[in-house]
Amino acid sequence: xxDTIVVFDRVRENLINRRPGETFDEIVNHSLVQTxxxxxxxxxxxxxxxxxxxxxxxxxxxTFIFIMLVGLISGTYSSIFNASQLLVVxxxxxxxxxxRRGPSEGEQTPVVSG
Length: 114
Description:
By secondary structure, the protein is mainly α. The protein is built from four helices and no strands. It has one domain. The radius of gyration is 21 Å and the shape is flat.
């Protein structure tokens, strides 16, 4: 969750200081590239600590540490690879096409003869 907030805050800052002709997609991509090293370094530091606890910790915390590792990996993945793309989809209102009933644009309605 923290990584998502950092990326979105960087998007907000880059929107304020946008260059002429730069699209929203490019701003989000640029913001993601700017925050990627920080996110990966923070997650690797936490990963090393959790792996050390998993290897050298007691039996009573092994299950908890394993669950923390799964959460860390899935949270990092979703913050970097999912949240930014969902922001772009939200901005372009592309989600409306996903829930539209009937034929999509360019498709013909089949004629049923009886």
